[in-house]
Amino acid sequence: MTDTVTDWIIHHAITTPDKTATIDLASGRRHDYAQMNERVGRIAGFLRGAGVKKGDRVGLIALNSSDVLDIIFATWRIGAVHLALNFRLTATELAFIIGDAAPKLVIADNAFTEVVNALESDTPEVRWVSTDGLGGDTEFENGIANAEIIAEMEPLVPAEQAMLMYSSGTTGRPKGVVLTHGNMLAAVINEAINFEADRNTVSYAVMPLFHIGAMMGFSVPAMFFGATAVIERVFEPGAMLEAITSEEFGVTHFLGLPAVYNALAMHPAYQDADFSRIVIAAGGAEPMPEPLLRSWYEHGVPIVEVYGMTEVCGLACSLLREDVPGKIGSAGKAAMFIDMKIMKSDTKEAAPGEQGEIWMRGANVTPGYWQRPEANETSFSGDWLKSGDIGRKDEQGYIYVDDRIKDMYISGGENVYPAEVENILYMLPQISEAAVVGVPHPKWGEIGCAVVVLKEGEELDLETLQKHCEQHLARYKHPQRLVIQAELPRNATGKVLKFQIREDLAGT
Known about the structure:
By secondary structure, this protein is of the alpha/beta class. Among the domains are: about 10-20 and about 30-155, 3-Layer(aba) Sandwich (Rossmann fold), CATH 3.40.50.980; about 410-505, GMP Synthetase, Chain A, domain 3 (2-Layer Sandwich), CATH 3.30.300. Helix content is about 30%, strand content about 25%. The chain has a 9-stranded mixed β-sheet with strand order 2-1-10-9-11-12-13-14-15. The model has no long low-confidence stretch (mean pLDDT about 95).
């Protein structure tokens, strides 16, 4: 590792200026590294002209486009911090994050005008800049067209912050995960080793780039290697199969959820799609069902399963291509710059094959949460991050992720934290007690089931519950099932036994 931070785009603009850097499928824009470098320089100049200084946060709420990469690297060029905002959140949810992160400026896609209008009145200290992600006539494009080009990077050291990404905590309050430039560098080197990525890589991104998984699988790493990043605006299985099949693009790397792989396999074009150029098809963000993995392997595409989280900059461990199919069901071995162990308790490590909590430490592990000392206190033991996930490690060092200690579940690739949903449900006057758990679903992996106890004489149906949630929660967090019970199961100390709720629901 180095003592200073290098601007990857400047380097490639000097060494391989004519190499294609980004291909934006929605707008048809293609930029080589020389063109990307100039655009990044102009965006950096625009940001600085808007008063953004080193260490300030620059927010982005946008659909996928090559602009996302341009803005990230422009933000880094002036020493600022990229604040990734989830466009699926409601104005209420985003207002908390923006209030906590205190960005100097937020670039917002016109696709989210309604949400932005609601936010602008509550955030007078933030400058909002509109864009369309397509290179159209917008405030953003007009602003950068007249901006001074910043051609050199602000001096930075690896320990300085590069990104701030929020994930909801089990208390219902979102937590900002701090990721440093050193974290980013370690993460892309991990990927180079585990995923055989180099300057010949052509990544394809279809999952939202506000996610660490989509960002690091593999668009941002492609920029490190001097490779090419193909960006799809939204997921449509036919369009994805067409892009993968295209000799013109030559896609080699992509990441998908189980829902993505299922949708591709169900599409009529799947059987004739050409996957011959694919080096790595990665599966992550939620557990990959073994039948799906075996089906794709039989189709000639070995999906490598990945385990990670925002706190480790995406990748903790993964299978290698040669591990498939022999180790299907495992999430592979720890990446180079991370240590992983299984702990039976806070002081005792599990023996091979024994279950325990997965702990991690290393160069790609976050130094902590933004302005949340209490979260750091509970989430770390020394320099070890407690994942909250239950796993085991076999004699060969392969990690198996068995369950989650935390009650979080994953619906369509999105993390849902029941405490956050429960807080909203308790606002309903009909509800006396509420517990939300994830239950299996063939399309989304898991959906939320609200198990509630009603106040005497009250009635409640799912439609009323969901209508209430629309005002406060992103749609993917809305419970899709409602179960009314006389009481919730509890242990001797009064804690709700969610594992028992899940077991009871399994039979219904």
